[in-house]
């Protein structure tokens, strides 16, 4: 089975990873491993692998999505085939349609040799196409945190950046962008001392994320974020409450994943504010009051209701 040359990542810019499973699910903020199915609204616990079992109708660990049959959702979107899940951590067994045969998983040799080499050649071909623009437009070298390396000091990052500049060609590099970690800042400043025409720039997204983190530490803001978390966690921990919420918000969600962790928290606040009236109507509805959650007088359910129906909401 030959690997795909192109991996379908369009539309996954705001997802936690390029795993194609995120086409069909949205992560629940502040609830690690919980994913809301975009097709049926069910909250699946266990991460993206378990969620793909839900989409792919692999029985045993999770209930199958009722809106997926014969490799296509009832909303018209195609469910990826086995070949579309070969690379980048997507397991074919977990994403097959209801009618397909049990696929054969790749061997360790195929993963480490055949598929890895194929992916390397694909990326290399992509980089070679970019090189044609470097002489005219220049290039920006961006470096993210490398958590898999145990000792990531300034000297490590300096050596890494310097070797990449040498490989690409110093004349093509215009600037270097890193996050604001102390080791990276030191490495960037050391590099521009050696290579005089380079500029070091801190990552704007990381700066904004740190600003939001500090804002979120203020007692009044922290309390507000905590209340939003209680409301969101209660609603998205139960399929029935998700469906009821969508009934009163005209199908709108109160979750919108962002590129950074702290941005997600504040965007979540914005969405809750937009759906304020719908959330109030939900908790005041006859369906909710007669449900098992509406009759509880304590616990997370009661806390969420008290927050939404409170005068300060």
From TrEMBL:
Domain of life (superkingdom): Eukaryota
Keyword Zinc-finger: yes
GO molecular function terms attached to this record: DNA binding; zinc ion binding
Residue intervals of the BED-type domain: 22-57
Domain named DUF659: residues: 151-231
UniProt keywords, alphabetically: Metal-binding, Zinc, Zinc-finger
Matching PANTHER family: OS09G0499600 PROTEIN, OSJNBA0013A04.12 PROTEIN
Identification of the protein by name: BED-type domain-containing protein
Annotated source species: Gossypium anomalum
